TrEMBL record:
Protein name according to UniProt: (northern house mosquito) hypothetical protein
Key words of the record: Metal-binding, Zinc, Zinc-finger
A Pfam match: zf-CCHC
The organism of origin for this protein: Culex pipiens
Superkingdom of the source species: Eukaryota
Lineage, broadest ranks: Eukaryota, Metazoa, Ecdysozoa, Arthropoda, Hexapoda
Amino acid sequence: METRKNTLKLQFVTSAKVPSHLKFMAKGVKIPAADVHSVYKDENDQKFYVKFIDETSYNRFCNTVEDQYWFHYEDGSRTPVQLELASRQFKYVRLFNLPPETEEKEIAAALAKFGKIRQHVREKYPADLGYHVFSGIRGVYMEVEKEIPANLYIAHFRARVYYEGLKNKCFFCKAEGHMKVDCPKLASLRSSAETGGQPSYSSVTANLKIATGSAKETASPLLNMTLIPVPAQRTKTKEQAQQEEAGVVPSTSTVQPPVQANPDLALPQAKPAEGQGEEQKEASPIDAIVANDPSAEQTDAETDDETEKCNDGQGEAGGSASDAMIVDGDQQNANDTKQEEAIDREEWRLQQKQQLKRPIAESLSTDSNAGQGKGLLKKKPRGGKGKRGSKGK
């Protein structure tokens, strides 16, 4: 339905004072009363509407005036007035695929850029069906100023739009007069894909299946790999490497382990650690006398020094024999001689030590016979009984 046919719209600026109807018609526009059908004011947008009796009088007035003219007030001031065509395509727009929770303000926000909305409608099923309830279809009465697309997003939902005069427009080629289902360009792409044509961007976006015969399958060449064994490196000593460089063939002498020390010789006992004296047994009389004898301490110290030197000698002999991979026969004999000499020295030191301890033991036995040694070895009783306890009884 076309509304405001043969109607002229006059709009004042926002800050201007809008006059009354009669003053505006008499002093402002100056339209002959015989050509005017009606004059009214829209309070919503503060605009005047003048409807002519027919199209002839309407065209005659529009051809004699400009798009903008000045309205003069009684105080001598004036304001510009904008003239434009008021006729609009007043249509009923239907919206599908929207949930019932969608509010009218959300619909108005989506359709405001396409025209002026006058009324919202919620369609219902006919009463004769037994369910006179809402169908989910929303309707809008509006003045369509701009073409509305067939699909529109409203509140994150894709709504299907339909109204009278809606032009069929293809979503694929964007051409008017047909829909996507009947698009000739899409049909040609499908036929070329079926016959083995080359794929294109349009065919991919149209979800077309590319013919498998158009692409030739080429087998990738096989790669042959040959594994060559690498010989393991032999570890060589420094002497063997020098002999090979000099061209000398090394001798195959047998490596003999070092001669073990005298197995019958008892090893000295380890000294107790510090702080363990209380847990050990009490010192014997011989140890007490030896501890008080300075000559015995000096002899023991000398014996210990010689023992350490002997052990060092044995360690050097054993280390030289274990480190060398190929030992000469003469060198081996020399080492054996040194070890035997060290063993003889050790036995001689032990004999000297026993001789030093023998007169000390004899003196201890003499003192014990005289009654002197008993006092040294007498222990104190640990019980609570004593002389005082006997007197108390």
